Amino acid sequence: MRPRAGSGLAAAFLLLLLLAWPARGQGTSGQFDFYVLSLSWSPSHCETVGGRSREQCASGRSYAFVVHGLWPQHELGYPRDCVVPAPRIDNTLVRAMLDLMPERGLVIHEWRRHGTCSGLTPDDYFKLVRHARQRVGIPKIFQKIDDYVIVSPDEVENAFVTANDGLKRDMIAVTCDERRLREVRICLDKDLAFRSCPEIDQNACRRPRLVMPANRG
User: Fold this and answer.
1) What is the pLDDT of residue 5?
2) DSSP-derived secondary structure for 12-52
3) Catalytic residue among 45, 103, 110, 183
């Protein structure tokens, strides 16, 4: 039995409507519990992506910890892509953030994926990113590494706790891949005070030893 032509046209029309309809975000802008400041160890990133991250990983660019993002977070899970399409970021603002987030694509991606969930304008969100980064002191031993070093996640956490008054072990998590330290994630309330975050802490790296590639330029 042949399907009626009318039903086929109706299905095609419905498909076109669905394709044209903007995608829904996975959260409501401004509704979240706290922030996670994610600091990426740039040499690990550059070893992983190679030449696909030219702005950050070009020869002579000896970045150490850089800002991966400032992520609105729920106590369990997190919102993302809260405004689709995201408001456009001015090129001047993108360039102004490259000292902290040294890839144009990263700045734009972080705004679309996470910044739109903050309830802030692009200008105010990236001001907050800068203030959050200023809130966290990087331990001196991780500001310049001239050769590969082997560390444990506990050693990295302890160094950050020592360098930052008020920061405790349940407020920070180290992440890793199969062998490298990838990120340090620090939990902040909406006023950028350190706060505990059980889910983030529970998802930390469990490997006993990690490599930190050198950041010599």
Assistant:
1) 45
2) HHHHHHHHHSPPPPBS-TT--SEEEEEEEEHHHHHHHHGGG
3) 110
110 as an active site residue: the answer is yes
Q: Which of 45, 114, 157, 183 is labelled catalytic?
A: 114
Residues 120-152 pLDDT 10s: 999 999 999 999 999 999 999 999 898 999 999
- The dihedral sign for the CA sequence 163, 166, 168, 170: negative
68 is catalytic: yes
45 is catalytic: no
Domains by residue range for the chain, with CATH: 22-212 (3.90.730.10)
Burial of 93 (0-12, 13-18, 19+ CB in 10 A): middle
Write the DSSP assignment of 149-214 as a string of letters.
EEE-HHHHHHHHHHHSTT--GGGEEEEE-SSBEEEEEEEE-TTS-B---HHHHHTS---S-EEE--
